[in-house]
Amino acid sequence: MLGGLLFVTGILIMAVNWFMTWTTRPPTYEVPVYHTPRLSKEAPEETIDTTSALDDVPVLESAKKLDVFGKMDWHRRWERLPVRFTVLTTLAVVIASLFEIIPTFLIRSNVPTIATVKPYTPLELAGRDIFVAEGCYNCHSQMVRPFVAETKRYGEYSKAGEFIYDRPFQWGSRRIGPDLAREGGKQSSLWHWLHLENPEQVSPGSVMPSYVHLLDTKINFEMIPERVWAAQAMGAPYDFDIADSADIARKQAEVIAADVVSQGGPVQRGELMTFDTKAIALIAFLQRVGTDIFATPEAEPTEETPGDPAAAEEPETEEVAAR
């Protein structure tokens, strides 16, 4: 009630203010008109004063020359040459930009990395493409901001080094659904399967639409090597033959599908086997998201230093001496 009264009062005050402003306006407004000099292809001849106000002052000659240079109005002269000035300005901006941008691509130390963050597997790459193609990022961001409210709800805040293989990254703060930056391992594979089929089965009241078509659409494994090649070209360090990507993806799909079946999911939908569906690829991606940061770093192999031959012979020498 009070809020509505304040709102209406504000509207009335605004109307009165507008009316009084309108009725007390001057009959005419005197607006000065300024004329700028016409542009020309050539700078007009100007007499340049080469004398300096510092001529009689005991200062360095360089200071006197700088004073004369400041009187030349060289910037004003260039402004009267629009084409030349535009070209010079563009060159200056491009050159300066290159000096700033190129090092960020060439100096690897500029890119923050985390030892446990690895490239996506071929199947996870395919699942990520499905995630992007379906527009999931419009409702689900993948970036936990360093705020207490977010870390308590979603977990550890996101680090820049987690996204070095994400192209494009899925950052954002617009969340119609929950953030998925730490989704990996939170739910079972069957939960994700049912969630895609009908979100309200596992999340009552969810406004997410059904993505049942992913359960009925066959994934094209033969296209995965091209996607892996693109990721490798962008810097993902894969240590297997790209031609084997399709087989690697199939094996992982079979493992995830077996997990779904073991939890009570279907072996197949119609004539389509579960492991052949796009849903399995998407589940593979969702189960991976945000888990690398918690992985245990691989131990670096240590080279065995060969012992000193003389030291190795010492026990034998002592034994002989004892005899």
TrEMBL record:
Keywords: Heme, Iron, Membrane, Metal-binding, Transmembrane, Transmembrane helix
PROSITE patterns, A to Z: CYTC
Domain Cytochrome c: 122-290
Location of region: Disordered: 295-323
InterPro entries xrefs: Cyt_c-like_dom, Cyt_c-like_dom_sf, Cyt_c_oxidase_monohaem-su/FixO
Transmembrane segments: 6-24, 81-102
GO MF: electron transfer activity; heme binding; metal ion binding
Entry-linked Pfam families: FixO (PF02433)
Ranges of biased composition (kind: Acidic residues): 300-323
Protein name, per record: Cytochrome C oxidase, monohem subunit/FixO
Source organism: Rhodopirellula maiorica SM1
